[in-house]
Amino acid sequence: MNSFTKHRITVFGINGCHDAIKSSIIDVNEVIIERNSPADNSDKVISALADISQSLIQKVDSESFKKYIDNNRAQGIYIKAQAKTFHELPITEEKTACFVILDQVQDPHNLGQILRICAGGNIDGVIITDRNSVSMTSAVAQVSQGGFSKVPLYSIPNINKAITHFKDNDFWITSFENNIEAKNWYSIDLKGKSVLIFGGEGSGISKQVLKNSDFMATIPMSHEMNSLNVATAVSAIVFERLRQVIS
Fold first, then answer.
1. Where among 84, 109, 143 does a domain terminate?
2. Cβ atoms within 10 A of the Cβ of 46, count?
3. What DSSP element (H or E) covers 66?
């Protein structure tokens, strides 16, 4: 059975809270509903709340709700929850399985955006290191717009051991890095079992990880630009991979 760590998070807004309540990787501890708010009258929220213990739900007036969160984007719903981060990497026979590994990504907004992208791009999991990386936080959850509840997050001590794990399970490993030896991103076959590795905001991908990868690819740029924000790079590659899989 996969071991995991639980991270305390808060989430607000109808869509994010709905996704958290419905998720198998999120444990909801408390739901605060503002009476006569959009959430209080939302069929989507009412349907989701039917799946959890009614003892977790508290309805309050507007002034009391503002003590939890004073933000119009909350739409009258705010939850306290625990998000699971897993420690044992999965084994899968799915022929198009794909995981994203992040090498020392430290910005919570980048991780949140990446979880959102990976949810939309049908990625099976996002893997981070347990040191020198941001993990699950309320900011990550909110930026992900529900992605945090749909894509498992794995936290591991060593990326090179993860590469060995995936190679032993017939995955191809591609690192994305600006390098004279790298292939153009669209020339890599990503249809099979794949691991996609992206470097952090400043340090990029470590030399040993690059050495252990099967392929190295880059996104060519013009006007003397030589790098993209990591979330933007993940978006380009994840949706190119999805295009290859469904075409």
1. 84
2. 12
3. helix 62-68
